[in-house]
Amino acid sequence: MADVAMTMTPVRRAPLDGLAGDPRARWAVPMARFSLRLPEAAIGAASASLGLDLAGPINNVAEREGCAILRLGPDEWLVLANDADSAAIAAALDRGMPDRRFSLVDIGHRQTGIVLDGADAADMLSAGCPLDLDLAAFPVGMATRTIFAKAEIVLWRTAPTRFHIEVWGSFAPYVWALLKEIGREYPVMENTP
């Protein structure tokens, strides 16, 4: 009997598509998401394979057009990329690291992203997040795992007044609704996107 290989394509969509919310919050575009784990000795080879410096400090982001790699720990990165580049990322690591000293797991099916943008974004997040989100303490390009109320999130500041929130799909409606509720305390300014 011949072996049959099955290929499954994960569904990448925002949970509760079309859910109304605060105009400062929107679902991030669908993207590929990977958890990358590798030992310190393999960081150089992985950096060369992906074309980004993964050796930067923990809680910082390496990015280029269409790809951002968030360093969450000494041996842990979250890779966010264009959906079309999903296979290329895995192939680049396979080619550049023949010793296979890495773990790359597609987590695009389990989590989604929310973008919060506006002058009150940091204050809105501070209502449920214990971090100091002042620009001096949490600058542009910083990313970390934290909590928002009762949900674990990865928080990344992409601009002075814009944050990207990565959250598991099952918690996304909770985070979305909480942002909408908190937003009621911060009137929407006319120039808010």
Strand order of the largest sheet: 1-7-10-9-8
CATH architecture: 2-Layer Sandwich
Strand content: 25-35%
Rounded Rg: 18 Å
- DSSP, total strands: 10
CATH secondary-structure class: Alpha Beta
Largest sheet: 5 strands, antiparallel
- Quick one: CATH superfamily? Probable tRNA modification gtpase trme, domain 1
Order of helices and strands: EEHEEEHEEHEEEH
What fold name goes in the CATH topology slot? Gyrase A, domain 2
Structure classification: alpha+beta
Overall geometric form: elongated
Low-confidence runs (pLDDT<50, min 5 residues)? Answer: 1-9
Number of helices: 4
Task: Output mean pLDDT.
Answer: 88
The percent of residues in helical segments reads 10-25%
What distance separates the N and C termini? Answer: 58 Å
- How many separate domains? 1
Protein name: Sarcosine oxidase subunit gamma
Pfam family, one: SoxG
InterPro entries: SoxG, TrmE/GcvT-like
Describe the structure.
InterPro entries: SoxG (IPR007375), TrmE/GcvT-like (IPR027266). This protein is an alpha+beta fold and 193 residues long. It has a single domain (25-183), classed as Probable tRNA modification gtpase trme, domain 1 (Gyrase A, domain 2). The chain is built from 4 helices and 10 strands. The strands form 2 sheets. The protein has a 5-stranded antiparallel β-sheet. It has a 5-stranded antiparallel β-sheet with strand order 3-4-5-2-6, with no helix packed on it. Strand 3 (61-64) and strand 4 form a beta hairpin.
